[in-house]
Amino acid sequence: MGNTFLVRSQQKILGAALELIEGGGFEAVNIAAVATAAGVSRQTVYSIFGTREEVVSQAMGGLAVEVLGEITAQVESVDTACDYVVEFIVAARTAVRAHPVLATLLLAERGNPVFDLEMMSRAIPFAGQMLTPMVERGLATEAELDEIVEIAVRLGLSVVAFDSDLVHSDDSLRAFLSRWLGPAIRSTS
Prior knowledge:
Residues 7-67 form the HTH tetR-type domain. By secondary structure, this protein is an all-alpha fold.
């Protein structure tokens, strides 16, 4: 019974944290607010997580694992480096649209433990992990990967943060990225 209560409480707390972040940004998250939103005591939050930062980290981390599965599934069937990067970016934007709380990661906001001057130094290794299968599948070389990762991160962040009519639909974004990334990625080969 104790483990069931603990797991249920943990899930409620993580869900409440995500709702608070989505509704009010990272500044809205504190132990008292999370406890109230989850319907548990502050002591329960402290005993499970210890700190506000750990609540935020586990909430966003759990969602990130779910989203990574969705993105990985999207890129499995492509057969060119350009298509891989295009589908990676389209899938990432789709994930942000499906989970609006992810958009808060892109906002420069006080209290956001993710967005700071070091964001690119964290985003590059993450994207590198996601794009490394291109090398394993023979779609790009190890030497090309660093520059492909750099452009994918910069374009990916841009299309998520700055939507426009020209690239609003997945098909229009796919066409836009393919048209401009295709020649750039081919020229690295």
